[in-house]
Write a structure and sequence with these properties.
about 400 residues, alpha/beta, 5-stranded parallel β-sheet, 3-stranded parallel β-sheet, 15 helices, about 50% helix, globular, binds 6-deoxy-beta-L-fructofuranose, binds manganese (II) ion
Length: about 400
């Protein structure tokens, strides 16, 4: 195989999970705008995910969030998804929308509340079994708003105990991926604020717990690709929540603000996939790439298509980097030359390459253009009347 064929092959195997809550009307705490044609229930969210997969060929799974997507019969929902051409992917518990969680969920001083939170996470672990999924995607929203409000160390012990109970309830082949976030909804401290806190929790839990990196959950200026490399090298990077940001957790579509960052992250990933250490390479190849974006004023499906195709672009450019040449220049201390190798790939127009990938996958060369021409948005606008699904 030529290098180009290798790249086409690798890109044809790309897997990007879209998320159910990316297909509904969301907003800020100031206003949620409804957009016409937006999904009204979980089946319509799955329909939209299936359409994104038909147009791109690389989005075969859809993530659910419970209770936003709660149904009576999950096995039936999984069959519905399959009939539409997609599978149900990761399941996220929700530990931030119950009144009981005002002072925390897994970290609450009140054992009754901690039990409620653990029971909910265990419910989600059981859903994994019913839908045949292998990832529990955990975000613990706990934190405090004022100095003195809580005991950091006691909260951490409760957190570890609660997570362990949840971890032990996982189906045998399933993994927990553990997200961190340095602010919001709490503004003084959050209990899993950064990758180090998440990593130490994962190490305490066991082999099947890995860190999830949400691009929006870092302070401005933080070098995310460096964090990614560090986690990759320990085999503990388990997943991504993909989006882009100008300020904080903006949840804009991928590549909208800083495509170079997405590319540099992808470069760390493709290089780890080829690592001589099988443990590092194997862990890198089993990472979950999940979109976590909110389309606040725009139509949801085009916004999702932008994210999926931006991930294809980032990986295509990362695969074009001549890594042998890069290593030579690094070894020679050629600072400018090394940067040039990386930049050459970043500046390459990969649209012809992606057209080959799409041809191989049997999908339109221009997914967004095909969507616009398909009449699918107009059909949704006409058919989906009544209250849209919210968070
Ligand atoms: C928190 C978060 C987390 C939630 C999602 C809705 O900011 O990124 O992943 O599950 O948003
Ligand atoms: Mn997230
Ligand atoms: Mn977020």
């Amino acid at each position: 195989m030529t290098d180009a064929e290798h790249i086409v092959d690798r890109l044809s195997r790309q897997h990007i999970e879209t998320q159910s809550w990316g297909y509904v009307s969301t907003g800020t705490r100031f206003k949620v705008y409804d957009t016409p044609g937006t999904a009204r229930d979980v089946r319509e969210k799955i329909d939209d995910a299936a359409l994104v997969h038909r147009l791109t060929g690389v989005a075969p799974t859809v993530a659910l969030h419970i209770p936003w997507d709660r149904v009576d019969d999950y096995a039936e929902l999984a069959r519905y998804a399959q009939d539409q051409g997609v599978r149900i992917g990761s399941i996220s518990p929700n530990l931030f929308q119950d009144d009981a969680y005002r002072l925390g969920s897994l970290t609450n001083e009140d054992a009754t509340v901690r039990k409620q939170a653990v029971a909910h996470v265990r419910e989600c672990a059981a859903i994994l079994r019913e839908v045949g999924s292998d990832r529990l995607s955990m975000w613990v929203a706990d934190g405090t708003n004022y100095p003195g409000q809580g005991s950091f160390r006691r909260r951490r012990r409760h957190l570890e105990d609660g997570l362990r109970e949840a971890y032990e309830a996982l189906p045998e082949q399933a993994e927990m991926i553990l997200e961190y976030k340095f602010f919001e909804p709490a503004f003084y401290h959050t209990d899993i604020a950064d990758w180090g806190q998440s990593l130490t929790l994962c190490e305490a839990l066991g082999e099947r717990a890995r860190v999830l990196v949400d691009i929006g959950h870092h302070a401005l200026g933080v070098n995310i690709e460096h964090i990614v490399a560090t986690l990759l090298d320990r085999g503990r990077l388990g997943g991504f929540d993909l989006n882009s940001k100008k300020y904080g957790d903006d949840d804009l579509f991928v590549g909208a603000i800083n495509p170079q960052e997405t590319f540099l992250i992808a470069l760390e990933l493709v290089s780890a996939e080829d690592d001589a250490d099988e443990a590092v390479a194997g862990a890198a190849r089993s990472i979950l790439y999940k979109i976590d974006q909110c389309a606040m004023i725009e139509d949801k499906i085009p916004a999702m298509l932008r994210s999926v195709t931006a991930m294809q672009t980032a990986f295509a450019k990362a695969l074009l980097v001549d890594r042998d040449e890069l290593d030579r220049r690094r070894a020679e201390g050629d600072v400018v030359g090394a940067n040039e190798v990386v930049n050459d790939a970043f500046e390459t127009d990969v649209r012809p390459l992606l057209a080959r990938v799409r041809d191989r996958l049997g999908v339109p060369a221009d997914p967004l253009g095909a969507y616009r021409a398909s009449g699918e948005q107009e059909r949704r606008n006409a058919e989906r009347v009544g209250t849209p699904a919210g968070w």
